[in-house]
Design goal:
116 residues, mainly beta, seven-stranded mixed beta sheet
Length: 116
């Protein structure tokens, strides 16, 4: 079993910053990638960013490139998402994702609300 616990969401004004964290526990051996997705009301869940466990290479959605930074702490089995220059369109529930072996695991979601 794998458990993911997210933290760091909240309400922020446009232009502000937030940092999300997601800590994994349990059977995390075999993790090869971690990531963040988000889902806005009435929309499908969409990819935000991913980081590979080995080497730390990253990839971002075009909508967040240059504003968001994903990072990981392998020793702590934790992934972070630093979000700067937030926009109202970034408002969504943010979900972390761990890819372990052939399986995807998801956090419970944390609400990010950006006011204009």
């Amino acid at each position: 079993q794998v458990q993911l616990v997210e933290s760091g969401g909240g309400l922020v004004q446009a232009g502000g910053s937030l940092r999300l964290s997601c800590a994994a526990s349990g059977r995390t051996f075999g993790t090869y990638a971690m990531g963040w997705f988000r889902q806005a009301p009435g929309k499908e869940r969409e990819f935000v960013a991913r980081i590979w466990w080995s080497g730390g290479s990253t990839v971002y959605a075009d909508s967040v490139k240059g504003r968001f930074t994903i990072s990981g702490d392998n020793a702590k089995n934790t992934v972070y998402l630093q979000m700067n220059s937030l926009k109202p369109e970034d408002t969504a529930v943010y979900y972390c994702n761990f890819r372990i072996m052939a399986n995807d695991y998801w956090g419970q979601g944390t609400q990010v609300t950006v006011s204009s």
